[in-house]
Amino acid sequence: MTDSAVLPTIERTATIPKLHRWLSVDVLRGLTIGFMIMVNNNGGGDQAYWAMKHTDWNGFTPTDLVFPTFLFLVGISTVFSMQARLAKGDTKSSLLFHTIRRALTLFLLGLVVNSFPYFHLATMRFYGVLPRIAICYLIVAVLYLYSPSWKNKAALAAAALIGYWILMRFVPVPGYGVPTHTIPLLDRDANLTAWLDRQIFSAPHLYERTRDPEGLLSTLPALATALIGMLTGIWLRSTRSIVAKARGIAYAGCAGIIAGGLWNFTFPVNKKLWTSSYVLYAAGWSLLLLALSIYLIDIYGARRTAARNADIDAQTRRRYMILLVFGTNAIAAYVLSELLPGLLDLIRPHPSILRSFYLGILHIIPYAPIASMIYCIVFAAICWLPIYVLYRRRIFLKI
Description:
This protein is mostly helical. The termini are close together. It is globular and about 65 Å long. Helix content is 64%, strand content 0%.
């Protein structure tokens, strides 16, 4: 998302020299995109391992962590990119124009991803991963541009989570009733989010016909996910030591998991509705992953490399190159992975090339979960290769 994000000045110590960017953030972004590509193309569908599938409704699997982690990283990267461009002398008005253009491009690109290769207006899906990222990015970027203080971000995130809980818990759903009284809380179709989406779009435009996991109302708590990332970015830009930053992020991660787990008892963790408990629980795990990445790369890895008088940046890039390829061209990798199946279907629709490939693996290894895992790893590798070419040529596609 912010391939040009530059790490602000970091304090020098005897063991950790100055770095030029948070490679730990790039590595985590690469891990997130790689896993996203795998779970979105697992071949086996419901027969894949549980960790490679979304929870059917309430609950949580590792797959349910992918999208919120990416959105969390959008918040972090927005802080870095804004500060980098301001340091170069860009004006706020030029940054505002850039932000609006970028958000609009992401949204339109999302429509292409959703509709490729046929683009039937009658069934076009206007919600989706990239449209949600575009909306959240636009709001948090403009907010940070004109008010970089952390306090209003924290207040807005809290208001979004509490406000969404109030709406979903207490507001009557027209035609159904009041949640927990006449209808169950978070009923699949009789919930306010699903009802609102059906008022805006007819069934063919919704991902699950009666609801959409990236619907309009659930974008409100998704905004809180991006704001938590932005708060983390502000924390990373503070003058504290790297060790203190990693420790603070780890503590916040534990707090998020506990808070989300407790809220789950009254407002269940639900990815498809992006519930407030889900935001906190997922953010907790995202923060812990970031803390671990910072420790491995910016603390332990930097110290070990410095002890050998080696170039920290170069050593880190070589060590984590597989993930950095995806992490520095994240949107390009995601779009490629989404368009590739449709493109191959045009070449041979019945049966598709990818389906035939999966069935071939299943024939050799007649156990669906393993066949599915092999398939998604190979698919991710196929997507990685052209992105690697861009990486080697130092071509970073920016929206």
